[in-house]
Structure of L-rhamnose isomerase:
Amino acid sequence: MVTFNDIAADLERQAIELPSWAFGNSGTRFKVFGTPGTPRTPEEKIADAAQVNRYTGLAPKVAIHIPWDAVDDYAALRSYANDLGVELGTVNSNTFQDDAYKFGSLTSSDPATRRKAVDHHLECIDVMHRTGSQDLKIWLADGTNYPGQGDIRSRQDRLHESLQEIYDGLGDDQRLVLEYKFFEPAFYHTDVPDWGTSYAHVSALGPKALTCLDTGHHAPGTNIEFIVAQLLRLGKLGSFDFNSRFYADDDLIVGSADPFQLFRILFEVVRGGGYDVGSPVAFMLDQCHNIEDKIVGQLRSVLNVQEMTARALLVDRDALLAAQNDNDVLGANGILMDAFYTDVRPHLAAWRESRGLPADPIAAFKASGYQERIVAERAGGVQAGWGA
Ligand code: LRH
Ligand code: MN
Ligand code: MN
């Protein structure tokens, strides 16, 4: 049997990167609701993200999106973040909000459009040098809406050529992570729809290219933990974009739609070495808070990941392996479920207190007055949105 004491030290190394865009206003194509206190600048997004780390100790990095978080002086943005106790993390490129990319970016049949898209990524690498970021995350909106609209095969060939040029621009300690998504905004075909396509491309590029798994980017019913196990086995799982979905790419709070799925994913992460010291797997959130409070939403998210990580670590793997080898079907299943059903919340509250953190980070944040302060201070300004 594995007890909470056995795993307490392992919880120390949990680090979950927050997306700057989670702090901006977001919505659907029907409506974006404004929220009082929403940041107006990249600095204010970072300041809000730093609050999440302050109360949980779980979120030491903030991922940025270019050009949403474009600034003149990235070194200054970096020291601003450092002064607040956080670092700048993954740099996300953006080729989905420019008219030039209407028919594709890295896959475009137009050499000038491809050039522009590759150059954007090379500029992102430049930003990474100044922010101290390790990862360049590429998600492409490229795809087609109608059968026959584009030549699927040559789009793949052009994608490889473009990615190769970007890969060649990486510094020695930098990585490229290629995210996949099976639909949206393209409706018929997507140029990087699944983990296999991402894997084919990153494998062709070399060791500094890995796959990014966004939990919201799969068809309903997909066994995501199987993909996790496979990518870890292949040494190509670079990062996670965590979120939850009910129907589509809903970007809801991780662990809110299906906590059991999050547990199963994290169990495979632990099982496959993805949580080991020095593991190459980066944990990130990729979420939007359309109607709920954003800082509290991010607090809830990192706490959900911590809770499920604790439960995944609690699985008695020796007993599980023995039961599996005995073909004890329900015995093995029972061992996994025992860990899943363990309520770790009181243990985690005590664990936090023993490390100088509040037992209840959300209550502590709410009591701090920060939210009221930013509502007052930021009134009347132009709020940043998902995309600005
Ligand atoms: C695309 C995506 C990708 C983007 C982010 C804003 O759906 O998951 O990671 O960069 O959303
Ligand atoms: Mn994502
Ligand atoms: Mn997404």
